[in-house]
């Protein structure tokens, strides 16, 4: 495709004529600058649909474009859209297909790891760690490889090892803001709040106009009970990017902790609108609705969280509790037993099922369900004492 024509030769000719030169030199041939290749109009429409959160339209358009464009760049954009849209399972399948087809491409390894981590299941996290380690073997200890390895280690319950990997990588690449962000968020998740705030304040200094830095700092400050500073940081993140659904989520959680439930609900409405595929946002929204007495909408929000993340134990438990309270214990039993069939090692589901059977006074089944939780729960689970007491009570009442 022809682009614009360099006009410099015209000016040279006019200068020569004005100075009386005769004859004028023959102009050099025009320089043709190639224009950038046109973007597929369907891709433009897909991006526009994703931006307005029209998931069905964006999903269909990305699929159309992908049929004609097998590039890993398009695949990466499509998979990340699917993750945000709550279809991480589909994104993982697409990423795995490319990974299996081009086993030596580090980009495919990185994308598959990212998609596996988004699934948030034990099996997917274990596979993510395996692929992240393959990435390090293939590409070396790049910032991306180290960041994904650290995240995968944390996902399989090896938080200390993950932090060690992230810390080493951050020291070797002090200007990498994604790596610095991952380290700060990992410190926050482990409860090392002083170190997290120090790390994230440094990141804000490095990237003062980057919304994720302010969002992560706000979350760490909130967990540190520095509410005024946390609110200022989160509001700054939203000012920089009003479409950042995660920032709205963190602000909603902060408002809830401050006792400002109406403001919390407003923030979480924004969070679920901007990130309709995020199960955590739907769970938090359900919590606020329950606190405010809107049980029917709370059930819908919890149900949506469970649909998006079938292994989301807390959401399943709250959904079952509300259904039982609403006189729908049979429905609660169906929901939880289906979840157990799909994820038989998820301890929290057995605890919820025990609570349902206790409400129904089906003591033998309740005792068995509580024992199922005790057999699967980690050693430090905060619900262990309650489950033991409930199991023993159910056994005595059989």
Short note summarizing the structure:
This protein is mostly helical and 398 residues long. The protein has 22 helices and no strands.
Characteristic terms for this protein:
disordered N terminus; mainly alpha; 398 residues; single chain; globular
Mean pLDDT: 88
What is the CA-atom radius of gyration, in angstroms?
Answer: 27 Å
Q: What is the share of helical residues?
A: over 70%
Distance between the termini: 82 Å
Helix count, DSSP H or I runs of 4 or more residues: 22
Spans where pLDDT lies below 50 across 5 or more residues: 1-25
The helix/strand order is HHHHHHHHHHHHHHHHHHHHHH
Task: Note the beta-strand portion.
Answer: under 5%
Structural class: mainly alpha
Q: Main β-sheet: number of strands, strand sense, barrel status? A: none
Please provide a written account of the structure.
With 398 residues, this protein is mainly alpha-helical. Helices cover 75% and strands 0% of the residues. The chain is built from 22 helices and no strands. It has helices spanning 8-18, 41-51, 55-68, 72-84, 88-101, 106-119, 122-139, 143-155, 159-172, 177-190, 193-206, 211-223, 227-240, 245-257, 261-274, 279-291, 295-308, 313-325, 329-342, 347-359, 363-376, 384-396. Helix 8 (143-155) packs parallel to helix 10, helix 15 (261-274) packs antiparallel against helix 16 and helix 20 (347-359) packs antiparallel against helix 21 (363-376). It is globular, with a radius of gyration of 27 Å. Residues 1-25 have low confidence and may be disordered.
